[in-house]
């Protein structure tokens, strides 16, 4: 990594991957190991040959994500319209690397870009979200942050702090008003539904203009409104309206989605504006999209 995103991150290397594979999964130890330049914010990715990828957390909050995906995705994947990263094998820490890690299939595709038809993507994303919501979440792990009610004092305080720190790049007064409106909206009336847990523009893969995979999940059950926050990162008004119509989203859920978009974006601006300015800029645009409605 050329820029450290987190003060307490670790930076695994290809040599670390080779050592871990040799000790724990020797069937893949002979494959070439290549660092993936675009690895997100909480994992380092390493291609293993052509068909596999090793995912190693770089920060403590991502430790355990591989175990969660290994438990949750296998029964859900057959019911979803696009691929999700079902781990092929799990790894454990050793003396040189501190977190649980995994080996996964390499899912082809690229992130949505300016050439991606947003109306098509909106339809595909709504299909994924709707299918995930339709899966039985009785035994799903409960949400611990995203997906909980918006009126929790700790979320409110963190959102307000982040907006105060971001007032030079967004209309913090208007964003705070949207946040307060969301907190007053009726809560989700149904049982918790399955959530991807980190549905963002950076976790979508597109092949030939169609959504092909959704990656980097933290599957839990909670208020599905949080998944719709991605609409403000990705879509314009017409595309967002298509998502709402497809999912049957009422005004209360949409208000909560707007609140989640503001809260998540404000925290990302405050956290990443120096180390990942492209993420901060994406979040600025997300808040602007909320305020444009």
From TrEMBL:
Q: Where is the Aminoglycoside phosphotransferase domain?
A: 35-260
SUPFAM superfamilies named in the record:
Protein kinase-like (PK-like)
Query: What EC number(s) is this enzyme filed under?
Result: 2.7.-.-
Q: Which Pfam families match?
A: APH
Superkingdom per UniProt: Bacteria
- The scientific name of the source species is Nocardioides aestuarii
What keywords sit in the KW lines? Transferase
Q: InterPro entries recorded for this chain?
A: AGP_Transferase, Aminoglycoside_PTrfase, Kinase-like_dom_sf
Region (Disordered), start-end ranges = 140-163
UniProt feature, compositional bias: Basic and acidic residues: 149-159
Q: What is the enzyme's main class?
A: transferase
- Keyword Lipid biosynthesis listed? The answer is no
Asked whether the keyword Transferase is assigned, the reply is: yes
Q: Which residues form a coiled coil?
A: none
Q: What is this protein called?
A: Aminoglycoside phosphotransferase family protein
GO molecular function per UniProt: transferase activity
